[in-house]
Amino acid sequence: MFPCYRTNIDYFxxxxxxxxxxxxxRFQNFLIVKGFEPHGCxxxxxxxxxxxxxxxxxxxxxxxKVRHNFYDLEKAFIFRFLSYSMNTDFVYASxxxxxxxxxxxxxxxxx
Length: 111
Description:
Number of helices: 6
Structural class: mainly alpha
Distance between the termini: 35 Å
Number of strands: 0
Mean pLDDT: 79
Strand content: under 5%
Helix content: 55-70%
Low-confidence stretches: none
């Protein structure tokens, strides 16, 4: 018996409550199940079909060089949309008395 894989993924809209890292992992797993290289040129071509709203607008504002290279696209995507959760976490950390340097050190270890 073969394991059951989820072969579809949700669209990414760029909302503050969306988890960027988890979505990227699901996207790469989707590519693997469909027989594509998760960091290949196919990944860069397929990527925009799973974006909607703010995320799609952001994607089409990128230079062609970034949109055609999945490694650069992934870095830009994380940098752009991870900042939402980072800002929310930073506000929480500062309100609870966590020192800024300690917060950033812990954050960079996670990502």
